[in-house]
Amino acid sequence: MLPVIAPVILAASAPATIPACPAEATTCAAPAAEPAPSVLPVEASQPETETKSKLKIGAALRGRFDLRFNDVGSAGQRRTSNHLSFDTLALTADYDSPKFFGAAQYRFYGASFIYGKNGGYEGYPGEVQFLMYAYAGAKLSKEDSVTIGIQPVPFDDRYWGSSILDDLGFVYGMEEVYNLGIKYKRQTSDLRVELGLFPGSGPAVMGISRDAARYSTNIARADSYVPNGSQNDERKMVIGNVQYALVNQPNTTLKATASAWVSSIYNFDTRKEGSKHLFAFSLTGSHGPWNAKALVARQDIDPRNPGTDPGRNDMITVGGFDSSYNIAAKGTYAFGEIGRTIDTGKLPFDLLVYANYGRFMKDVAGFKDSERFDLGAVWTAKNKGKVKVYSEFLLGRNDPYVGAGQFISGAAQGGDNKWKAAFMMIFGYYF
């Protein structure tokens, strides 16, 4: 996860028949998301007016180590696998002035075990790439701003937890979603109001998937390997939230946030427009070195898929990181996290430890709920924070990112309904 103002994504892809993450019989874990912040994330407040304009150019180079306890071999045999590989190169630009601000980030993936030759890739750096965000904004006053471009939609906070993979909210396209549109924001010490109009998702950029070479999870056209894959596009999005500080003391905070997301879902096969309604309420708090978040969200999607089988409308295809999979169209999501910063004394790193749990409870009786438990730690170099190491132990059930055989249908009908385990470490240098 990255800092500040209000980000965004783009993506454009070439058609393909093979997923970036191997098909249903194999293990999948998407490339790491944004680096986790040093405390439980809350959307940054309105930038302060400054006397000078500033432009910062930066980059991040990251690698990763994965230990997968529930993987499968080429013959389908169960095994534990380990992988040390390249993760991403990110190029970033940030601009701020007394009246205007803006930022952009472009990412390069490829040449890693996730994008291997068995998945249809040639295996060179930059084979998968996309513009993560690109936006510009104007400061209307000290409290008010407007932002236009590819940016995070204002549904609750930008990040719900501290995990570098985000949580199951990201899998279902609720958390850290980047779309193309315009957003108004008012931020005071106790109140935040955000409202955005988004005509459509950011376009896919470069990869081998049909419509999924993008950073965040968006409703997308399914690749050929997705059973019962749908061909949809999300449009006419109206998304907003109101956050109020119930307690706002120097050492203790408690904020309540209510969010709403209403949009139309266009189906390319039936040429009909369905709908999406998503609502959430959360409490986010901190006390000294402790921080916590609790959130509940309700999702109701009508994809207007073709066919007479009603089950087809109980799922919809989404895509991200150059691969697509199905999710349940209707359900309720619950998430909670608790974290603590640790005084490391003379050690050269600051430390944040956290534990979170999320469960998506699906409406359809035959669908198996998706769950994830995450225990993690973030080490950040005290010397300007240029070196960061993220480590996470993951337990997932019917979770597309944890364990073999869960990727394509785990978030929809469910996988084998067994708990799977994995360990991941991301290490990066930030220029």
Describe this structure in a few short sentences.
With 431 residues, the protein is mostly beta strands. Helix content is 1%, strand content 53%.
Textual characterization of the structure:
This protein is mostly beta strands and 431 residues long. It has one helix and 19 strands. The radius of gyration is 20 Å and the shape is globular.
Strand order of the largest sheet: 1-2-3-4-5-6-7-9-10-11-12-15-16-17-18-19
User: How is the quaternary structure best described?
Assistant: single chain
Give the termini distance in whole angstroms: 16 Å
- Radius of gyration equals 20 Å
H and E order: EEEEEHEEEEEEEEEEEEEE
Instruction: Extract low-pLDDT stretches.
Output: 1-20, 22-27, 35-49
Percentage of β-strand residues: over 45%
- Proportion of residues in helical segments: under 10%
Name its key features.
431 residues; mainly beta; 16-stranded antiparallel beta barrel; three-stranded antiparallel β-sheet; 1 helix; 53% strand; globular; disordered N terminus
Q: What is the element layout, followed by pairings?
A:
Layout lengths: L53 E19 L5 E19 L3 E10 L18 E12 L4 E9 L15 H4 L6 E10 L3 E11 L16 E2 L12 E17 L3 E16 L5 E15 L2 E13 L12 E6 L2 E6 L1 E13 L6 E14 L7 E12 L5 E11 L21 E12 L1
Antiparallel strand pairs: 1-2, 1-19, 2-3, 3-4, 4-5, 5-6, 6-7, 7-9, 8-13, 9-10, 10-11, 11-12, 12-15, 13-14, 15-16, 16-17, 17-18, 18-19
